[in-house]
Protein 1
Amino acid sequence: MSSEPRIVAFLCNWCSYAGADLAGTSRIRYPPNIRIIRVMCSGRVDPAFIFRAFETGADGVLVGGCHPGDCHYVSGNLKAEKRMENTKKLLKLLGLGPERLRLEWISAAEGEKFAQVVTDFTGTLRRIGPNPLKAKTNVNNPIDVEAVVSEALKKTNVQYCVECGKCSGSCPVSRVDNSFSPRRVVERFLLGFEDKVISGKDLWTCLSCYQCSERCPSDVRFPEFVRACRSIAPRDMLEETCAHRGIPMTLSRIMINPKIKQDRMGWLPERAQISKRGDLLYFVGCLPYLDILFEDFNLELIKTPQSVVKILNKVGIKPAMLPNEKCCGHDLLWTGDLENFEKLAKLNVANIKATGAKRVVTSCPECYRTIKKDYAEFVGELDFEVLHMSELLSELVDKDELKFEVYPERKVVYHDSCRLGRQMGVYEPPRKVISSLPGTQLVEMERNRENALCCGVNAWLSCNKYHKEIQMDRLKEAKATGADLLVTTCPKCRIHWKCVTSEKLPINPDEITMEMRDLSVLVAEAMNLA
Amino acid sequence: MKGEPRVGVFVCHCGVNIGGVVKVPKVVKYTKTLPNVAYAEDNLYTCSEAGIDSIKDAIKKYDLNRVIVASCTPRTHEPLFRAACKEAGLNPYLFEMANIREQCSWVHPKEPEKATEKAKDIVRMAVARATWLEPQTEPEVKIRDSALVIGAGIAGMTAATTLANQGFKVHLIEKEKEIGGYVRRLYKLYPTMEESSEIIEPIIEAVKKHKNIELMTSTTIEEVSGYVGNFNVTATKKDKKIQLEVGTIIVACGGLNYQPPKGLYQYGIYDHVITQLELDQILKEGRLGKPERVVMIQCVGAKKGEIRGYELESFPKSDTAKLLKKILRAKKEEGWPYCSRICCMNAIKNAILIKTASPETDVIILYGDLRVYKEYEDFYSKARDLEVKFIKILEIVTPEVTETPDKKLKVLAYDMLAGKEAEFVADWVALSTPLVPHKDEVILARMLKIPISPDGFLMEAHLKLRPVDTMMDGIYLAGVASGPKDVPETITSAKAAAARAAILMANKKMKSEAIIAVVNEDLCKGCGRCEEVCEYKGIKLEEAEGALIAKVIEAQCKGCGVCAVTCPTGAISMQHFTNKQINVMIKAAIGG
């Protein structure tokens, strides 16, 4: 690849593509660095395309649309504008630079403008240098199928299945979509139909919530079996069933590149006390990215890490933090991208080690499970302790170090998210914390602790009307407790529930709409730190 | 895809247009190394008969199931090459073009090596996409043989009678009690000076008597749903609701003669400052008498001025409503900066009428520009012969109207020829105001899902090539609804719109677009976000077994792709512009 910048352009058929044609007809010259993809409307340009272009090595992306008011499809360009703004924020976080993405309004009569834009953009890209992701190759090392499958069989106990059907009976997906059955998947596999299992759609429906293996008399680790199969399954299936066009995973993969210098600390509260080294490290997770990706939901996801830092500072802890923290890799692991997961794991562990931290605390249950359990499995014994923020808060409650100043009278219902609860056995610490808040009464849903119902979506896979039913089911259960607030520690749970309560429903929205709060934010509010 | 893709690539020299810069043989050689390419050749002019034959022969000889022509922009010859593929038995949607002329050789003439490399990349991208193209069929839509005409002015009535005479049933709807629109209110029409009633009354009679025309007055449109050939219209007359099922719609809702706000040139303050329309009325009723002087000011509110405020609160917060708010706010500062075509002639007509009835009256027309095109030049000469005075003023110096002590009007303006300010004492001041769109047009636009032009009139599909079509198939524009016109132009456009509608209705069916959205119901969760963003109601939620599922209404979907990007689960894909096709192009664009 030459050192000349490469621009990938998405031009709308009616205006900007025609404008580019006009530049040609008028023989106006511009640098030959641009490669044009025609779309019908700039509103067709998915942010996923843009991230893919950068991931593949484009130095710049140009999106051309009609002038506002002139869109051939009325308002497609206005939608494009909003999306591009959001994408630029993510590019800034990634450290790729929002200047690499340009949105221009170019009409069919503006051949001169098109040429000008290309010339200008090429100049800018020459100035800011090549895309740091360029040098990377995207070829996955071929996986030894037999080795992976036999490993899976050994570790997951799948050959001990006695076909009792307890899994299918407990599976939340099976309950709403009876075409899915964990037992059938295992049976098929054991009977020699591995190909059908691996190339099928069922593989991507599993929530990996562990309800089945929790009850399995033979201790079959079905979710881990599914995970192993996913790593050798055709990627087409993943592309088809993955929501949000896999943007969260693309962001995670981009972070692997060592040349990427993220700009991800902008959310830190004023006067926050953090450090490059320390005994305790706070691992934030992808909240800065999720906060932007889902800004329309107004979940204030970023309040979680802000609250954590404020609480820690208040009790005299100055946490170490990683300015170039990478995604823990949870989604990559659970969608079968083992190679990239390992890379992320190794990078994170090395960076954590460099801070000298003896304890790592995280507020996200997925990061918690992934670092504590999966990193140890894939990368080797960790020489630091991993704890969840609820465990740390519980410790602080025991030592009476949390001073509460605000105590509204309210009922709070706590949801055990799969990764923290059933998978890692952390049930009591969050409850102790909530119960310690004066004025707060903790109530329980019927299905709690090891029986808690999954929030309905995992790793952004297979989101459809069945998974929506699971979500509505859980929210109805929460509402039935009469609680004022639904508290959990997992940002994904909150995202999925907010998504379902803010869209069209086949039922009355009042049946499922609940105010939600993250546990750390709840505590920070009670301490008057928010 | 049946079997392996076998791609044929035809790289065009286009004489020296491409071949003079891009090394075409090198591109052909490179193309042969690309995966799935079964055949590649170069042509001097692929669009020539020889080139087309070559494509058709190669399809048969080499069993090609994808064809790429690397030449000019698809915007010119794509239909030609698609037809060639179709003739050779290949679905026309399995054809792709690589633009190596307008977007390559013509813009990099001094960099042949780089242009050649770029051409190779462009072909590589096209091959990547072609591998994933699928055959498409254009779904057929039945067309009902009845039409709705909105507005019974001269445009609406002309369109209605034209269609009715061809045997189609026409529902003609008018919101006022009387039909005939503006023309009916006028006194005489230029340049023939016929009484408007002589022209319009026979048309009104014909409309009322026609057996194929159902006339509904005092009726307004409430809702329009459906799509081309199958529109469902709800109208109300007094309190009664009327349901209509029609195949085509012609919008002939006209415009308004802009009424100046109170105070502009003292309009509304002094009784004798009037609009040309009001002057026309006065002349019709013979109330003018024999004044000493009448001064007319042209282009009032067209260069500067305020506009009458529209209440926009009743509009829902759609993008269209926001757009109109923007337009109207801009207008508040600028006025209506377009020529309304009719005002110069109208003023001259009224001037001639005054002079003919009262030769002693001094008639002065103050203008910045005078527009009297085609044979109207003679009309202007006639006015000059009658000693109507035409005085060119400097419009930056806004004319001023004040009252004299003896209750006459004094007009102050800058006379360009004299090179100084001039004063005129007049009995009447007539203001020529523009033709503007009225609020109903915006409401209609929203209902019919057709766009509005920057000036607020309904927008035609293409300014030059499709002046009476709209973006929505089956909906056409007639008369002032799409912009200022005089009577002959209005009649012409109305007949044109009727002809366009008649084509559809006579054929009884049409092929609709293949580039539309497709919903994978296994992935749809019925969230409704697609429905919210679609400007054309091309995708709707339906209830099925207790859950909501999105369904595409094929004839209404315009294929823009906004829903596909909005869909959180990825359930929607766009035919012929799938994510897969775009993703492989991205990969090919960067390095293959």
Protein 2
Amino acid sequence: MNFTPNNRVLIQGIVDPLGSTYTPLMQAYGTNIVAGVSPGYGGKVFHGIPIFDLVEMAQMVVGEIDTTIIFVQPFAALDAALEAIAAGIRQIILITEGMPPQDVVRLLRKAEATETLIVGPNSPGIIVPGQVLLGIHPSEFYTPGSVGLISRSGTLTYEIARELTLAGLGQSMGVCIGGDAIVGSSFPQWLEILDEDDNTEVIVLVGEIGGDSEESAAHYIAEAIDKPVIAYVAGRTAPKGRRMGHAGAIIASQISELGTEIGTANSKVTAFERAKIPVANYPSQIPTLVKKSLRLPSRRQSSP
Amino acid sequence: MDLLEYQAKELFRDMGIPVLPSQRIDYPKDLKGLNIPYPVVLKSQVYIGGRGRVGGVRFVENTIDAIAAAQTIFNLPIMGEYPKMLLAEAKYDADREFYLAVALNRSVCRPVLLGSCQGGIDVQSAIDQMQHVVVEQEFSPYYARRLAIKMGLQGTLIESVSAVVEKMYQLFIQHDLDLVEINPLGVSATGEVMALDGKVSANDDALARHPQLISLISKLGGDPAQPNDVVPVVMDLDGHIGIVCNGAGLTMATMDLVGHAGGKTASFLNIGGENRWDSSPELLKLRLEHGLDLMSQHKSVRVILINLISNLVPCDEVAAVIVSYLERKTARAAGLTNLRSDVVFVQPKRRPSLVVRLVGSQSDRARTQLETAQLSLVENLDEAVTEAVSLAKSGRLES
């Protein structure tokens, strides 16, 4: 894993609307963007960044690339990621929302065979406050510190980063694994990374209803994580899925063999409580629980 | 989105999965032109399962009985859903009934094949006997045979059942589906197999690249979902608070806070989409404008709680959208008064109160703009929720 300002970054879809909006913001934060790829735009330059038609052409000119951030259209995302893997890039961040899940499955088969890290799809990416922005997190809500923040959503993560910052608790890293049903990197993977990260003292895990990522995270924390973890689960009052009487969907969720209640907020909160992980009832409670775990006084500090 | 049984069977037929002769019935009188010999079975075409247990499936021996049964089924809601059409199908004598499915499993991030020798309407016993095979790498028919063996099948049934599973998988991949389910797969005394009921779920994100699927859905009277549409989701009919948020996680967290503070969410709207490849400030502002209009049409909504964490759009631009929404509402009410000048007391057009919580850049300018419209900007989420809940309880509507 390499998430430092030295990280050499490629932007695929640099002329696409989202790509062209966020590239200058990442650059301004200190991210070392060495090239962009957008077929048909080879030879052009955007904010001082050379654009190429192919990933391999970019590599021939600018040299090695550590990470690619993909902003292309959803139906082009699989191809862009496969092109990056073929060129030897082993860290891929997929920002784009709406990638068909079967494309993600095909990508993950390839990624596993080549030991490539896939973050997303439908993810705002990674921020290491004060160091590097690999994605679209609004940096003004973050401040450097020792809280590792992992989640499945975008704006809710910013909300919690902001709460932490206002409480005087900076962050070592903010990562969103993506809001889709099928995503690349998992909670356990990031828990392991943050557990080994010297700058992280405590981990905040922001979950939500659906799937079993939180349940498997709770099991993993109980078994393998030494640092304190605080959890929050969004969606306690969300309406039940509209797939009532949909036997296939119910049964499909059962094959994880963790029980029939998988996916509900209740199941997730229970899993965390069983693993003795403190669960915040609402976002503003998170800083208090973090301070408690670090044995800091819980008085709310003024703005940073 | 889910397909109806007769749409699923159209796909099965094209793929070579064995299905019985059948005919779509839009009106009971269509049964006079039935091309299938009696006895036939008439089946309610609804999206919800369990229709057989409540009388949505009937066997009939002749035209007179069929028309009467069809009238009954057309007037029978299944969990509140009335069928728009029925499917008339040849009757089949199944000796045994299996359950088969292909679905995406999000825990293992792979397609899985599912099979149970206890298919039919008792879903629980199907689950108890369920076998599964994860399709780890590129599919090959041995995955399907592995499922058949796990199900305990022997002899020719191994080949005939795994051939059906293989075709289900092809269908699943070819059309980017979330689910292909056959329940039950009828097995005759002679070992012949037949898909007696079928369920297919198309993936909403992938649908746009499958024109064939779109035309099947629209040709057969369905309404393909418009994933880009911003439509509020109705939650609680007794609720009075409408929530407008950006992002799914933030929307859920806000609803939870409203519930925690003793309020009830009438409906919610996620204008989100900050990860859309074509996301732009203009698009998000348009969605907010459209969303506020839709939300204020809900009669039960007394308070709209706007909670936006502005990433792409500076807060002052969001505030401008909110102020112009208010101006439009007021102008419309004034116009109504002018038209009916002969009426002394005109009931002013009411609109919900607004609680605006914005964070992001240019929030000071946003605050000033909102103040000109007698609105305050709340930065703290808990405070915004408390205010929305107490406004909703006081039951006041702005005029």
Protein 3
Amino acid sequence: MTLFASLLAGLVFGLGLLVSGMANPAKVIGFLDLAGALDPSLAFVMVRCGCSES
Amino acid sequence: MTIDWNAFAPWPALGGGLLIGVAAAMFLLLNGRIAGISGVVGGLLKPARGDVAWRAAFLLGLAIAPAVYASFASWPALRVEAGDGALVLAGLLVGLGTRYGSGCTSGHGVCGLSRLSPRSLAATLAFMGAGFGTVFVLRHLLGL
């Protein structure tokens, strides 16, 4: 049971990374580039992660 | 600071964040463990009895995620915009840093902050700050 739960958690986690765009380095760099053209999407990812968990 | 509205995608970000948060909460509730990817991988390098199978199962789930994602034909195609060399070097640095910092974006940033851990707040501020600084130096000072 815990093995299946682990597998499922890993799968859902991975899908979350892919859906949010965090699996793409260019997207992450866009978030970290304060002095250039900033893409604030990833802030939404982090906030949403925290809200859904707590 | 300017905002890149063309790249800004709040709905996928919120949806993906929800999935990651649900996965981390599920892992904590069902397994009683923190879903920190670096820690899960790190534990496999020094295997202890009875501590290997759940790590392997979690990583297998993570590894098959792109295939499952691709099976949803209507979802946007996956893009990984970085050179192979950059990925290897960045992965190595992330691996070193997460061992020194006892965690990564998932363990500290997602799980730790949700648990109001001061240590995770310090780690998250440190690696986000280092990320902002690194991109500034590479892009705007060195022009890479």
Protein 4
Amino acid sequence: MQWETVIGLEVHAQLATRSKIFSAAATAYGAEPNTQACTIDLGMPGVLPVLNAEAVRMAVKFGLAINARVASRSVFARKNYFYPDLPKGYQISQYDLPVVGKGKLNILVDGEVKTVGVTRAHLEEDAGKSLHEDFHGLTGIDLNRAGTPLLEIVSEPDMRSAKEAVAYLKKLHALVRYLEICDGNMQEGSFRCDANVSVRPKGQQEFGTRAEIKNLNSFRFVEKAINFEVERQIELIENGGKVVQETRLYDSVKDETRSMRSKEEANDYRYFPDPDLLPLEITADFIAEVHTSLPELPDAKRDRFKTHYGLGDYDATVLTATRELADYFEAVVAEAGADAKLSANWVMGDLSGALNKAGLEIEQSPVEASRLAGLVRRINDETISGKIAKQVFEALWESKDSADDIIEKQGLKQITDTGAIESIIDQIIANNPEQLAQYRSGKDKLFGFFVGQAMKATQGKANPQQLNDLLKAKLQA
Amino acid sequence: MHNKTIAELSQGLQQKQFSSFELTEHFLNRIQQHNDKLNAFVTVTGELALAQAKGADARIASGQSNALTGVPIAQKDIFCTQGVRTSCGSKMLDNFIAPYNATVVEHFNKTGAVMLGKLNMDEFAMGSSNETSYYGPVKNPWDLGTVPGGSSGGSAAAVASRIAPGATGTDTGGSIRQPAAFCGITGLKPTYGLVSRWGMIAFASSLDQGGPMARTAEDCALMLQTMAGFDEKDSTSVNRPVDDFSATLNNSLAGLRIGLPKEFFGEGLDPEIAKLIHQAIAEYEKLGATVKEISLPNMNLSAPAYYVVAPAECSSNLARFDGVRYGYRCENPKDLHDLYTRSRGEGFGAEVKRRILIGTYVLSAGYYDAYYLKAQKIRRLISDDFKQAFQEVDVLMGPTSPSVAFRFGEKSADPIAMYLSDIYTIALNLAGLPGMSIPVGFSKNLPVGMQIIGNYFSESHLLNVAHQYQQVTDWHHKAPAEFCDEKR
């Protein structure tokens, strides 16, 4: 039987506000346990929540960026359950009236554009952390994270493969960082993902029973966990079993998912509107104001890179994958004053390669945009050849010198003086009469030999085009 | 000194007839003398009070005092007080010392009032008789065998027995007005949102409202002036300028339109109480008011709606008392489940548990629409009834409670009978309206209270209406003989 995979994702993006969603405590990551939790975060008796306006602004930004309707009136609800790291015994979230309604994201998979629906996005507070490892026989509670603002972004079950799921997730990740509403740090849990996965016979309309997979803290794990889960479900059904609706945990060490709790064991959260908070009312004026503050979004930027810089679809897509990369590229182009394609090649080629190898992000690049631009400028004005440029790039990476200083210090300036090149060629021809005779009798391949000799003699600094032209003329003379 | 009203004490302090220190000592002595019989205070903060009194005297001497500077008052033990135990009448918080002040407490501190201590109450404000307190019931100063009402029973008893000139209370379904009526004092439940709820331990967030309890409307006006005001720490607090509540006390009532909701005078009302209410209304007619019968057709739905909404919110509000971070924790918990179930099982009393169970039930999947959502719709209907009524009249009047103070144990075994003692008060909480209870006479030697209901934010008018009645009657000056040597 042919099976079709159906995937929907729930993403929790931690909003990059300085203070918490309902209190004035700081949200900075990594502080000593329980030092960033005020009486509100601790759920002390008599304390009350007050909504952080910045969190609302960020949610509205997101809504506008995915072309969703921003609700003029949304409601905070209490999700009731007991857990030691949930101080109030309920989480303040949004339930039937979320702040962001239906929207969509376009993703590119195997060269094809696909639209993934976003069902909703809502504001809620994060819980604290339970620490089981450090305390023998006890559990430690760290409430620093309690009350951190989250935007939960729920997709439609529109994805049909792990690859599509990852593409959607990456697109969303890029978007929240473009909007500067989330730092996107998956290791620190700033951008978390749960996947709802089911399978159905190809052609069937109804969805199969789904499992929800939790604990997916990298793009790679999302892909691996979904692939494992799809195979598990297909195998189960093909062996006469039935998929049960349950929550499963992904174990990245064993690369498998395993059951956490079944639907029957699931909590009845007894949602009801939080009487401590008034309905959230968002005016058209506020939305309009947020709209004007929106940065250029990935799709618009990609289109502009194509039309403005004359880049191809692939280059424009790669360069706009993150806001930092796009900014870097634009800084290089602006300073290099050269052909954008040349800058693009260097950013996507040697620079990205070196960063990958070193495990660095673009914003951590040892070669700043201005110094890479200095290199591109010298390639463009033919001060150095492309080959020498690689040598200069290595020096840029290792030092803080500018490209010009490196070229100067290492004497890498290209030889473009026709007379100088001619005299070198004459010398080589004179020294190699045998090869000259063979070349002239039709052994064209020997042309390369002469180029090599000339480059050797100039330490690679001869302008390749000039050298070629002059050599060709001399050899045939 | 204890026979003086807050207004009189304030004047005496300003005129230096006595110092705040002397006044405070006097009331601390009275508390020491009488509290054992009454059980009104659960914590007496003598040292703190005397220190505050010294500070107040210095302020008065330097001419930087307000009306309440140096006046001793007491706080219901539901308001968090920094460094002082805040028990909420529960074993759960018997060991809880708040690291912050409620906004209301902060306001009293700023004005220089003196806090005598913390007052007994029904556990987590759930009760109408003060019998649910972990610290034992408060006694009614008029008859120690009867209840003082609840949940602000300690506040009402302390004021009635004159061991405190004024006290704060909170009112979720009648918890200021009903004990005020049972103890023969004046109490005001403000419009929802007028007084900050920050630091006031929540029972039912959408209904809870703090307010003043004192002997006279004039005193309530002084206290409310200190308590009211927008608080950015409470999202449900209303951002509007606060009236000068004392300024209009002496306005004439000529032309006042009084509405008598016929639903308040039906079956279940003690006829002697009905008679006293009508006598009070007659006084108002003498003051120039006109009277008209009106109808609040959905009144009969208020108790059922209330006993869905209040427990629902309470079941969630009280979830934080889990033995993990503060408050009562059971001995030697085996595991997390054991910690939760025993800490809560041992820490909460029966009435609190009953309401948590009801609340959990009505919010459960499959029942939410039938109970909680329907109750919220009824709330709207009840509000609309009042809105309609206030098109025709300025204030509504009726009994505060269907009976006078009942005897201990009389209703504690029958929750429904107990719940019905709030039958005339809970509708206001559902609608968020302000209401008062003022003493209008005695039945069976026990005080009878009349409820005055006004439109939203009409507190200054309500106080004016109550004050004018108190200018021509003296029910509010009657004192229980056992606690007061003088007539006045």
